[in-house]
Write a structure and sequence with these properties.
Layout lengths: L1 H36 L10 E4 L4 E3 H4 L2 E7 L6 H16 L6 E7 L7 H9 L5 E5 L2 H10 L4 E5 L6 E5 L3 E4 L5 E5 L5 H14 L1
Helix pairs in contact: 3-6
Length: about 200
């Protein structure tokens, strides 16, 4: 009887934690999006981070539009889905993709070293730039762009996941925020927005 009560309690705790995790994730996602839409705290800013090949990427001298996504290589769902979409955008842009840097910034620098990111982004598209840095560097860039992220322990494991904002940012060559794209947006709409900016410039 006691064993059943303990098992029931553990199961209830797991359900509660799962519900809390997803509600909390949606809350932060919606709050961040609302701030951007209301222009309460527009994201943006230049950054200097390490690329997947070990060289330094400096957005100040890239002189291109930027599609920016913050994620991590151990992400089981939203990150692969978003990078598939980013790869599709690159292909749809064709030659216009030469005017755009498609960027994946890791918010898990502890595990996402250059070699790990290199293998990860190359699985989606060879034009995607993977960036990492120190904990302090990533925290600073994420703060500039209004990106929340938080480690979450995985029950029954020594491993962890990272809860994070799930949107693609569009920035101009000056590192200034232009627009953002939510998870369910179609690739064609991103391409249309990017092409309009390229053609108008």
């Amino acid at each position: 009887m006691i064993k059943k009560i303990i098992l029931y309690s553990l199961f209830s705790l797991f359900i509660f934690a799962s519900i809390y995790f997803f509600i909390n994730k949606d809350y932060y996602q919606n709050t961040a999006v609302q701030k951007i839409e209301n222009q309460d705290a527009l994201p943006g800013g230049h950054f200097t981070l390490k690329k997947q090949d070990g060289t330094i990427f400096d957005s100040k001298i890239s002189n291109k539009l930027m599609l920016i996504y913050f994620g991590f290589t151990y992400c089981p769902d939203v990150c692969p889905t978003t990078l598939i979409k980013m790869a599709d955008v690159i292909d749809r842009l064709g030659e216009d993709s030469d005017n755009v840097n498609s960027i994946f910034i890791s918010i898990d620098p502890e595990r996402d070293k250059e070699e790990v990111i290199k293998d990860y982004v190359s699985a989606f598209h060879d034009e995607i730039i993977g960036l990492t840095g120190s904990e302090e560097q990533i925290s600073s860039v994420a703060k500039d762009w209004g990106v929340y992220y938080q480690k979450e322990d995985i029950e029954g494991s020594e491993d962890y996941t990272v809860n994070h904002l799930d949107i693609i940012f569009l920035a101009n060559a000056n590192g200034e925020y232009v627009d953002f794209f939510p998870p369910k947006i179609q690739s064609a709409l991103i391409v249309e927005k990017v092409r309009n900016i390229i053609n108008n410039n």
